């Protein structure tokens, strides 16, 4: 009777039959066809070592590096304990827009706001613009991924802005040949129309051409507004700039700091070679909430066969709630009408796009994640789960696929201001029904205890180092739980750790594999038989879910 109860869940845990036998965690995304896939339900990006890409307000450029042209992704780190948008800037490089290698911190001296970068051919310098303290800090380097030195006096703004008591805020810079522009939001904290509830501020978008070295704006600034100059035009921030077929576009959101959705606005005007005050901008509102995000940039991708350019809109999105570091990104190609206007974004949750692009030069980046032996699906709808106060332990299992020495098990975990430690045990076991049966003892292969300082506030990997001989086909698992820090009492700590989970069903549909991967939970205090017949395990399946992890067997 008890055996029946403990085995009945096994079939239910299985994914689709064809899926279970699929090769472990293989990427279904071919990069050979020069087509990149973007999916609305895959907001989190990870680098090739398996860490969450820690780059709020992302901007991706295609720059010529010392190893040839590559895509470089820039953004603000929120991994640190106290970051409020002034964290260090990070960059990641890729030739295929899927496999991103972390390049490290961009600069010691130029930081503190959104990074936007342009290349100046005349000076052969990369010029980094960052919005800090109501103005702009500029750095230059001969490399797009590091070595930026602060330029004293750079980033000067149109004096009329300061004279009007306005403050430079969100911005972008873009170059077209030897001409470059700064688009920036000017905040007005003194506007008497600010409401008790909303809006807290008014802000307007402006455009300035840059000096020929790209390190200063010319002392001119032109309003970017529809003729209405209405509430939408006076709440614009987070811009980016592109030119398509002779028309300049400026994409923006409305006032929406670190929020979970804002109006998406696209302005367009005939290319202002020398912008003038009479420039008539046309405006499209392309989304009421930008798919739960705030636009952060537009990525132009060129089809190498036809030369056609796709303009990919991307929004920062905070799928897991309020923590800014839990930001993902939504990417989708803008669809243009014949008159140059832009169609509404498509926020349907299952929507995917295939976009042709020009691959960068060089090897596709690899790392601990791409070389892993077994892993949760590479592409899935990962979302944060923060339940380590309610759940005593989660147990994630998998079928080991390689004979050798198990060296590492890495789990994506984020800490907050935790007082407890985060405990991971890695074990081998006979089968799923044994594992949850009373008195069963697994074989402990290794464990690690992470203090909050060992972890970050984003989903970096917590890695257990091991030295355990394993055989292909072995059932392996890990548990995660809170453990009291020395001298503290764990039950007094109501700050949970967070991990990432995916929905098994959607991972199945994506064709990824999760062989032997079953997630069990044991709620706090649940240590005895359950059920009316007194024959159920207190350890139950978290149906259809899996934890993000990978293992390395050498
Ligand atoms: C790219 O950079 C390399 C190395 O600095 C250089 O040899 C090459 O000419 C550059 N290519 C272009 C198109 O600028
Ligand atoms: C972060 O804030 C906490 C709480 O205020 C403080 O104890 C800690 O020293 C700060 N850490 C850093 C690195 O600033
Ligand atoms: C930028 O312009 C300002 C104002 O004209 C000037 O004071 C400053 O020297 C310029 N900076 C550079 C690096 O040229
Ligand atoms: C341009 O923007 C400024 C700052 O918000 C505002 O005072 C001015 O009225 C605007 N001008 C036009 C023509 O919209
Ligand atoms: C570019 O603009 C021209 C004239 O404005 C128009 O005839 C042409 O169809 C446009 N091309 C694209 C790709 O939209
Ligand atoms: C699990 O393993 C035990 C031996 O440890 C065996 O008796 C039992 O039949 C196995 N159950 C399944 C479902 O394979
Ligand atoms: C946690 O950090 C300490 C101090 O840097 C280090 O000695 C320890 O090995 C780390 N623990 C883990 C599990 O990584
Ligand atoms: C790993 O295990 C092997 C075999 O037990 C042992 O010889 C070796 O010293 C261990 N290596 C480390 C780094 O502990």
From TrEMBL:
Organism: Sporothrix stenoceras
Keywords linked to the UniProt accession: Signal
Protein name per the record: Arabinanase/levansucrase/invertase
Alphabetical list of Gene3D superfamilies matching this protein: Glycosyl hydrolase domain, family 43
Domain of life according to the entry: Eukaryota
SUPFAM superfamilies (alphabetical): Arabinanase/levansucrase/invertase
Cleavable signal peptide: 1-22
InterPro entries cross-referenced by the UniProt entry: Glyco_hydro_beta-prop_sf (IPR023296)
